[in-house]
Amino acid sequence: MAIMSSFDPTPADRFSFGLWTVGNPGRDPFGHAVRPVLDPCDIVAKLGEIGAWGVNLHDEDLVPFGSSAAERDRIVGDFKRAMADSGVVCPMATTNLFSQPIFKDGAFTSNDPAVRAFAIRKTMDAIDLGVELGASTYVFWGGREGAESDACRDPRTALANFRDAIDFLCGYVKDQGYDLRFALEAKPNEPRGDIYLSTTGHMLHFISTLDHSEMVGVNPEVAHETMAGLSFVHGVGQAMECGKLFHIDLNGQRIGRYDQDLRFGSEDLKQAFLLVRLLEGTGGGARYDGPRHFDAHAYRTEDHDGVWEFARGCMRTYKLLAARAAAFDADPDVQAILSGTTEANLVDVGAGYSAARGEALRGLEIDAEGLGAKGLGYERLDQLMVEHMMGARG
Ligand code: GCO
Ligand code: MN
Ligand code: MN
Prior knowledge:
The chain is of the alpha/beta class. Helices cover about 45% and strands about 10% of the residues.
C-alpha cells in the first residue's frame, strides 16, 4: 500500500507525545488501571519506532516524587541514553503541580505562602530537569489553580500570586542563561470546579501583564476550549496572530463533556480539518513551526497494542488532514469563492485615522442594498470542504 505509507509519520513532522499520554494506564475516577505502567525508556524506544519526533514529560513522569539525588541522576542518565538510542528528542517539559496532596488548593495560587514556595521550588528543579533533557519550551498547566467555593479567595489575589510566580520563574530562567520559553495552558474546569485563566484569550491578556512577556506564550488544547463550547480555531488564530502560539495540545473532544483527551481527529473532524489548515498555513498566513503535541490517551478498552494504534492514528490523521487542506486550498472552485470575499480596502484603514481618510470614507459610494442582497457562496464553500475531507475531490 505505497499510497498509504506517505501518511506514515517521520521525525520531520515534529509529532510529540507526553510520557503521561501513551503511558496512561487507563485509570479513571471510577476504575483502576487496565494496562501495566510502561517504563519511560521503553516508551521512548517505541515512540522512535513509530515515527514520533519528541517526548514530553512532567518531572514526576520520570523521577518519582521524593527520589534521592542519586536515584534522580541514575533515572535521568538511563532516559538520556534511551533518547539517544531512539533519536527521540525532548522538546517540552512541565511540572506536576496537581497530584501531591499539598497542592489540593492550588500551587502558585494557594493562600498559603509555604505551598506557593514549595510549588515554585519544585518548578525550578523541574526546569533544570527539562533543560538537561534539551527542552526549549516549558508548559504551565494550572489544573489545581482554581476553586470550588470562591469564598476562599479573592480571584484578584490568585492572579497576583500566579503572576508573581511566573515573573519569578522567568527571572530564574534568565539568571541561569537557559534558552527556554514558557507556554501557559488554559482550561475552564477539571479537576477544580473552576480554574483561573480559563481560556486561551484570558491567558493572552494575562501574559501582557508579565515582567518578561516576550518569553511567555500559550499552549492551547483542543479539549479545553471545546469543553466550554468555544471555537478552538478562533483561539489558536488569536494566539498565532499575536505571535504567541508557542506549543499546542492536540486531541479530540465533544462539547460539554469532561476532558476526554481522545485520539486527534476522532471527534469533530471538520474543526480538526480547519485547525490543521490553520497550523499548516495552506489557506494563507504563516505556518506554525512548533511541535505538534498530542495530549491524548487511548480508550480504556485498549491493551498496549491499542495504545500504539492510537498514537499512530493521531499522527496519520494529522497528515491526512494536512493533505486534504492543501488540496482544498488549491481547488480553483474554492479559490473563486474566497477571492470574491477578500477584496482590498477601498480606503487604507490599516494606515490609521487621518482627516483625509475620514473624508475619503465619507465620500465612497457604497451600495448597501446591493451588498445586503448579495449571496456569498458559503454553502457551496462548506460543501466543497466536506467533499475534500471525504476524498470526493482533488
Ligand atoms: C489536563 C492537561 C494536562 C497538561 C499537562 C502538561 O487536562 O490534564 O491537559 O495534560 O497538558 O499537565 O502541562
Ligand atoms: Mn487536558
Ligand atoms: Mn494539555
